[in-house]
Amino acid sequence: MNCLRRVAVVSQRSAKLFSTSAQNPQKIAILGACGGIGQPLALLMKQSLFVSDIALYDVANTAGVAADLSHIETRAKVTGHTGPDNLKMALEGTKLVLIPAGVPRKPGVFRPSRLLSFHARVLVFWCFHCSLDAMDGGLLVV
Q1: What pLDDT digit, counting tens, does each position of 44-96 carry?
Q2: CA 43 → CA 36, 66, 68, 87, 124, distances in Å?
Q3: 24-103+112-141 maps to which CATH number?
Q4: 84 FRET partner, CA 20 to 30 A, in 4, 33, 40, 124?
């Protein structure tokens, strides 16, 4: 009897995930989505119940990552954007911008100032474009 009670509680909790009521759609953008951090981050965002649209942007080809994520059956729609002309389209209407872009430490680079100067330039570039496109939401740098 106790086992059946546990099954009933679990099924009641699971039923809440299948709500038919309208939810507030949220669009997010991931800048640097093809990197080692951006791909798993995009996968986690695809599985979130709070995300309705995901815009992937990177200097590399994002079509492959977007195609892989679109095979996962969730309500989030994934689009891939590449190139400076498509950056505005990727940021349009976003509530949250996630920036995992950067370069890993290479062998022989011992001075953190060299690595930090590159990351600072990348961050200034992204923040400048986010401010130009009148983004409504927040900015998260990973």
Answers
A1: 999 998 999 999 999 888 999 999 999 999 999 999 999 888 988 999 889 99
A2: 12, 10, 9, 21, 26
A3: 3.40.50.720
A4: 40
